[in-house]
Design goal:
The radius of gyration is 15 Å and the shape is globular. By secondary structure, the protein is α/β, with parallel strands linked by helices.
Length: about 140
Amino acid sequence: MKLLLAVDGSASSRRAVAQAVALAAELRAAPEIHLLHVHPEIPDARVRQHVPHGDLERYYRDESLPHLAEAEAALNAAGLDFKRHLHVGDAAGIIAKLAAELGCARIVMGTHGRSALAEAVLGSVSHRVLQLASCPVLLVK
């Protein structure tokens, strides 16, 4: 079984990692885990034009690694192998697309549990992943 574990460093994301570890323990064979962090793109196109591409890549990587560190430690402690994925852009779209490209059987991710009004006004990554994903999504509060 292939799992896409999307993390953002939040408390609900940490609980999603714990849930993925628990799920892996229930399976007969260890799952193939793809650990993902999606960094939002810098919105100002002028900044992106004037900052060298290599510097921008380093910035995104350096900003993303701390969000992955705790998840990586938990997976390592559980003896689970994983592949790290760092992406930049629209989180929901990337999560759904990567899960489909990798043939994942499930997406595991946290949700911030926003109110219905906030979700209607702002939208949420977890809600959009539910709409876009072609596989089951396990949302952890």
